[in-house]
Structures are given as C-alpha cells and as structure tokens.
Amino acid sequence: MLTSPGTAWVVVGLTLSLLELIVPGVYLIWFGLAGFVMSIIVYITPLVFTTQLIWFALISAVFACIGLYVYRYIFSKATVSEEYKNLNNSAEQLVGMKVTVAEDSEDNQTKVKVGDTFWLAYSEKPFKKGDTVKVVGVKDSLILVIE
Fold first, then answer.
1. pTM beyond 0.85, yes or no
2. In the CATH hierarchy, which fold is given to the domain comprising 86-146?
C-alpha cells in the first residue's frame, strides 16, 4: 500500500515513463516527468486530490509544449542525404532515367514503360511508340519526358 500521495505520483511517473518504452510514439515521457514533478510538489505542500489532478494537467500541458518545441528543434536540424531524398517517392526516382514510349502520344500525353510498369507521361513534343525518352521531372504523378 502506498504511504503518501508523493509516492503515488512517483509510481504514476514511473509507469508513464516505462510505458514510453512499450507504446509507439514519443509523448508519454513528458507526462511521466509531470508525475515526478507532482510528487515533489505534493511532498512539499499537501494538496487535495482534485487540486493535484488540476496541477498535474497544467504541468503535463507545460511539459507537452516543451516536448513539442524539443522535437521541432530536433527535426529541423535533421537532414536527409540526397541518396535517400526520394526513397518513398517512386516517381521522383525515375528522373534522369531513359524510358521507352509505350503508345503514340495524344494531347501531349502518353504512356511510358519503366521495367514492367506503365506510367502516364506528359510532353510538349509528340512521340511515337518505341521512342526512347528521358524523364526530366514529375508533376501530379505524371512523368515529364523529353527526348
């Protein structure tokens, strides 16, 4: 059995901090820290349980805002090398590649064959089936091609 409200808040802080290791995301640690701060506050000044919950909510909000700024700072400093810039964007990975026109162009649009896949393509010039063209850019999941 818990002997004091301060001990209860330490348990809350530890529980939330340990849940951070299990639950995906990175936000419970800030609530765990609020629990630890509450244990110090309750140890210094005895408070009614309702007041403790209000203080916990306020301290949690402050720590959550601190966490938001910390993560924004960390992610603003993170850089991705050019090698991995388009890792999950398959259309952008095709820029610079030579592809084969799969059908005659109509209204500046055609299909090009990339490996075993067909992509919609746009070009200012008309192309015939079998022409080899170079991908120069991507717009709205259409490949922009040029000779």
1. no
2. OB fold (Dihydrolipoamide Acetyltransferase, E2P) (2.40.50)
